[in-house]
């Protein structure tokens, strides 16, 4: 009899198949099936697989009284009750550095897409507008822009390294200055925003970074400012962001993440100055394969 493995998020099929050789898979991808587990013997699970966006609902974690391992197909642990995991001795494995390059690539892609209006111009061509007259708007050059990175961890640093050859001026905010880093350090996001044209959000999510980019920070960034967020929607006050994009107090945004995914504020959908993505930072085949392989190995080695 195979041990049961609880899946709160799917893996790529080939990697799921490797797990299926060893385990009896129980999928609970939505709220209703997770609630149903409560009356179906939740104590039988010792291991679960989830991803960064899903985490583990606290009530489910409480019900899984024999849980020993949470394998995260991602790097974010902001939707996992770390205190409870620690107190109960539940191990958490993440995919660590495997998605750093993909997320950093996505940040640069989104920034360029926003400045050069790639999505807007694409819509212009598709809608047959070109023969009626040339594209009416000019983009913004990246060279010379002052780019502030909020959260200069692994992903933030990888974004900075990619942006350097574009000739930008880099600065950052972190809880602490990064050793041997030559970019200007700002002890708070407000001072960083006041010194920048573009703010790239790369900080980990969770209560510690919630609304780090608030109304004051957005005000300091100003009407020519652009925000790129590849981290978590929770780091930015989304209501403020949307209001400022709508009335011109902010120039533009490129967003891979949102406060209440998969819900995207309706107002954003009609704006030409935003680029919107459905949380695709790590979504390359190569990266997702490497991540899934890491998850499979972690789960198998724990049994
Ligand atoms: C993943 C993420 O796409 O790693 C994370 O925390 O948010 C994403 O990069 C997500 O975990 C889906 O696997």
TrEMBL record:
Keywords: NAD, NADP, Oxidoreductase
GO cellular component: cytosol
A GO MF label: hydroxypyruvate reductase [NAD(P)H] activity
Entry superkingdom: Bacteria
UniProt keyword annotation of NADP present: yes
Boundaries of every D-isomer specific 2-hydroxyacid dehydrogenase NAD-binding domain copy: 108-281
Family matches, as InterPro entries: D-isomer_2-hydroxyacid_DH, D-isomer_2_OHA_DH_cat_dom, D-isomer_DH_NAD-bd, NAD(P)-bd_dom_sf
Occurrences of domain D-isomer specific 2-hydroxyacid dehydrogenase catalytic (ranges): 16-301
Family to which the UniProt record says this protein belongs: Belongs to the D-isomer specific 2-hydroxyacid dehydrogenase family.
Listed name of the protein: 2-hydroxyacid dehydrogenase
